[in-house]
Amino acid sequence: MAGKLRKVDVAHDFNDADDAVRGSQDVGEEIYSTTVPGPSLQKRDAFIELMSPKKKRLVQTMSIATNQAAPSLSSTAGFTFLGRDGLGAYISSPETFPSSRVLYYNDQFVAIHDLFPKSSIHVLVIPRHSLTKLHPFDAFGQDSALLKATLEEVEKVKKLVAAELRRRFGKFSHKEQARLKAMEGAQEGPSRALPNLESLPEGRHWEDEVIAGVHSGPSMNHLHVHVLSRDRTSETMRHRKHYNSFATPFLVTLHEFPLKKDDVRRRPDHGGYLRNDLKCWRCGKNFRNRFQELKRHLDEEFEDWKKE
Using an 8 Å Cβ cutoff, are 76 and 93 in contact? Predict the structure, then answer.
């Protein structure tokens, strides 16, 4: 299949998202290498294959922007992208990974599940671009077309994350009840037809519950954008740096680009964001440096947040 790539038109498989690679030296996360799996290592799910749209083919060969010696797309099986270059495996050969790892890909981007999620849903959007090894401040500052394309792709992923939030937590949400009752009524009627979604009550604005941005001190070498639910509830949220990397200006939204030359976030060590007091994203309560106390509080806030 040299020179050709499968395009998956988005498999909505947020379940078992346990293998995407992200580490962080800057925010205290482990860093893992990534090996491109061979055909025998690929997981297959008959239900997903049955329900997914027919695969389309792209005839464009992707360049692999990496400091390592990059193999051709036809020979990447078994190739290991070391340490902070681990995301390169998804840029070079996304078609070799199962949907539990790669959410979808196209000729310009790959969306993967974060191996160490910092919220109930956490996705990485990775550009497949020649500038992918630059710091995001430089890449987005140099190429306005890349910034525009990434903004558009991130908006698509935010909609996917919002839809998954509705699927997981809609039944708990007060704002969703009218919508849920309308759907149940349509399905229980004589025709048992699926309701027209546009005619349903609007329900909760789940896209408002999704945040996105890049870290001012990225954890991995390849350019990537975090798209995650705002709850910050996860077993892999393990310490102060983890939380503050998503709860302070250390996380920079794409709409803020290009940054001014004197923006303090160009020197995140000067801003001291990761050492800031721990403040609840929802109620603003200051826990200072008491992370475990914050974690317990976030679990309580999570339950209340679902019910909004």
Answer: yes
The CA-based dihedral angle spanning residues 197, 199, 202, 206, taken in that order and rounded to the nearest 10 degrees: 10
* DSSP category for residue 162: H
| Residue-wise pLDDT tens digits, 291-307 | 999 999 999 999 999 99
110 strand-pairing partners: 105, 126
Task: For residue 93, give the nearest of 48, 126, 67 by alpha carbon.
Answer: 126
Question: Any idea what the Cα angle at residue 120 is, between residues 118 and 47, rounded to 5°?
Answer: 125
Quick: pLDDT tens for 144-157: 999 999 999 999 99
Q: What is the pLDDT of residues 218-241, one digit of tens each?
A: 989 999 999 999 999 999 999 999
Residue 258, phi then psi, degrees to nearest 5: -75, 145
Q: 6 or 163: which carries more pLDDT confidence?
A: 163
The CA–CA distances, whole Å, from 18 to 102, 111, 259 equal: 10, 14, 34
How many CB atoms lie under 10 A from the CB of residue 13?
22
